[in-house]
Design goal:
The chain is α/β, with parallel strands linked by helices. It contains 12 helices and 6 strands. It folds into 2 domains: about 70 residues, lambda repressor-like DNA-binding domains (434 Repressor (Amino-terminal Domain)), CATH 1.10.260.40; about 180 residues, Endonuclease, Chain A (2-Layer Sandwich). Helix 1 runs antiparallel to helix 5, helix 2 crosses helix 3 and helix 10 runs antiparallel to helix 12. The radius of gyration is 22 Å and the shape is elongated.
Length: about 280
């Protein structure tokens, strides 16, 4: 007996409405997910996740669905709304995308990226950002962050490239011992078979990515997405022109950053400058 389709919630968001309309029109046309997959050239499993709003909608799917169902731009209009939404589950979606990424490129202007933070650094960071949190609440946050890091040691592991502003090395969290351990972790990542870490020195001056952090992810199927984050929120971009622009900015910044060898020397210098 075939499992009963999951109940949809079209009133929850534009993304959920997109999925609900997709299922309604598919069933109205007497099509299975498998038959629709052959028409729009997407995997059946992917289409199932788009219907239930469990995955972000790819940019070109809307036009393909309009062509398949003859809906005269309905899905294009729904997608134009859905792509601007900031969903409550945005960080869960980010973590899902990270697990699918084969290449992760990051720029961080103030903090060590979460994927390479030590437990002590992460704890100190959470204590600053959540001063009223209980010890148990802080422990939960730290545990969650540490669990995300397993993807860097997965088989196969994604390539991880990072550009850190010099401020990341100089701004201490948790005291000298915690910071020394964190800097040692960064030192180990400067150049390995799966990681490249560079530093953008203060002397470079201003640049287009100053003020926050940017994560560029290339997924296993070749899809590229961008996650931009500030101190309170993050936004996912999938539009090709936005992704292309961020990649260009990142490439220019990488060209101006210190080489891994020079970055290692700066990290060692920051470690030596810490109080004993």
């Amino acid at each position: 007996m075939a499992p009963r389709p999951r109940e949809l919630t079209p009133d929850r968001s534009a993304r959920h409405l997109f999925g609900s309309e997709m299922r309604r029109l598919r069933e109205q046309a007497g099509m299975s997910l498998e038959s629709l997959a052959s028409v729009v050239r997407y995997a059946k499993s992917s289409l199932a996740r788009y219907e239930t709003a469990d995955a972000m909608i790819p940019p070109d799917l809307a036009e393909r669905l309009d062509a398949a169902f003859g809906t005269d731009g309905l899905f294009v209009k729904l997608y134009s709304l859905a792509r601007h939404e900031i969903h409550p589950d945005q960080f869960r979606r980010l973590m899902e995308l990270e697990t699918q990424a084969r290449l992760i490129q990051e720029y961080s202007g103030q903090l060590v990226p979460g994927l390479v933070q030590t437990e002590g650094y992460a704890r100190a960071l959470f204590e600053v950002h959540h001063p009223r949190a209980t010890d148990d609440e802080i422990n939960e946050l730290v545990t969650a962050r540490m669990s995300r890091q397993s993807l860097l040691t997965a088989d196969p592991a994604p390539d991880f490239f990072a550009i850190l502003d010099e401020a990341v090395l100089r701004r201490s969290f948790g005291g000298p011992a915690v910071m020394r351990e964190q800097l040692a972790r960064l030192l180990d990542l400067t150049l390995t078979s799966t990681s490249v870490l560079q530093v953008l020195p203060f002397e470079h001056g201003g640049h287009a990515m100053a003020g926050g952090s940017v994560k560029l992810m290339t997924l296993g199927n070749g899809t590229q997405v961008v996650w931009e984050e500030n101190s309170v929120t993050g936004t996912l971009f999938e539009e090709k022109h936005v992704v292309t622009a961020r990649h260009r900015t990142y490439d220019l910044l990488r060209a101006c950053a210190l080489s891994p060898k020079e970055a290692a020397k700066m990290i060692e210098s920051a470690m030596e400058a810490l109080p004993t």
